[in-house]
Amino acid sequence: MKKFLTTAFLFTLAAVAFAQGAPVVVQKSLFEGQFVAHLSLAIAAAGCGLAQGKAVVAACEGVARNPQAAGNIRTTMIIGLALIEALVIYVLVAAFAIK
After folding, report:
1. How far, in Å, CA of 12 to CA of 84, rounded?
2. Which of the chain's termini has less CB crowding within 10 Å, N or C?
3. What is the full DSSP assignment across 19-57?
4. Tens digit of pLDDT for each residue in 44-96?
């Protein structure tokens, strides 16, 4: 009896779900969709470029002051550059999700 009631409930729920009309199509404005995706990607890329430039300049100055620490500075700089570049990749993924 329990299986029958469960099956009847699911069929009733399915009938209600399929009985709904077609979805309403909403026209997107200029500031939704591709425009926002491209603008956010451009801002993120510009910020990433500036941050990477500052990181490289600071690393070069650090190596110039202390040449013995060049290996450690280079390793830290590469890890930092990878994390900075990850921000642009996150925005790129979000831009594809918006489209």
Report:
1. 53
2. N
3. TS-PPPPPPP-TTSTHHHHHHHHHHHHHHHHHHHHHHHH
4. 889 999 999 999 999 999 999 999 999 999 999 999 999 999 988 988 888 88
